[in-house]
Amino acid sequence: MNLDSGAFCVQSSDNRGGCVFNASLLAPDVELSLLQPVWNLALENASYCRSPLFPIVVGVGSFFLFTIPFTVIDFAGRDWRWAKRYRIHPETAVTWPAVRGAVALTLWNQVLYILPVSVAQCVWTPDTDLPLLAPPLWQFLWHVVASLVAYDFAIYVWHVVHHRNRWLYRNVHSVHHRSSVVHCWVSQYVHPWELFCVGLFGTAAPWVVGAHPMTCWGFMILNAFLGVETHSGYDFPVMLHRWVPFFGGTVKHEMHHQRPLVNFQPYFTWFDLITGTECPGILAGGVKPESLLRT
After folding, report:
1. Which CA distances in Å does 172 have to 84, 169, 189?
2. Distance of CA 4 to CAs 21, 28, 131, Å?
3. Rounded-to-integer distance, Cα 181 and Cα 97, Å
4. Do the Cβ atoms of 240 and 78 come closer than 8 Å?
5. Strands (DSSP E) along the chain, which ranges?
6. Cβ atoms within 10 Å, residue 30
7. Which residues contact 187 (CB under 8 A, 6 or more apart)?
8. Model pTM?
9. 169-223 pLDDT, tens per residue?
């Protein structure tokens, strides 16, 4: 037992090690984060959460989870009026052959590349040290945003290089642009080199800002969601680009798939605005704003 930390480690009958958090054992001047109850769940399941596999499971699992509602809308809701109302290209339909190809490549990449990397991490990477205190809420939010900005910049640079260089575009990034209709599974419809770089940037971004493990996992979940959302082909009122300034979202990225030399940033728009590569996108229902008609 560690009286200073306010936690002690236990070994359960099923060999699942963990830590039991007891706030009464903390020093009086220690202020607990609002996130502490959530973080306690990770401490109680520390043997799982400390594993090098855990972040991979969080990132990959989140991606597959977030594709479900959009896939349901694409197929089961094909004739739903409200869904058509918010589809950027209501005149086109997402077809099973297109989705099947994207799903097949996604699963192939997971088995052929992600699985071996995961096994290697288990062998050579030490377990993650879990601090006993959760990050303050303000720090959690700040580091998630900072990680997103860092990731967005890294992908922006990579994206520009792989469009401007003909060899890199033809042999690597063109895979991502093969689908004529953008849908949520296109998010992972990529060449193995692109998959590696995206994974590397996504892992490095929270590390660069010195994020707490809980913040790293939160960023991975948000990043997986945004990757799916920006390729969904929908312009729903609740999406971030409707509310957050300088956030391009699915509208801007959909336009990038139509005009590949514009809107290089995956999420934000400031670098595209500075460099003159920002382009307005088509809105819900196929509406073309005047700013787009002038370009």
Report:
1. 33, 5, 11
2. 11, 10, 13
3. 11
4. no
5. 7-11, 17-21
6. 12
7. 63, 67, 227, 228, 230, 231
8. 0.89
9. 999 999 999 987 899 999 999 999 999 999 999 999 999 999 999 999 999 999 9
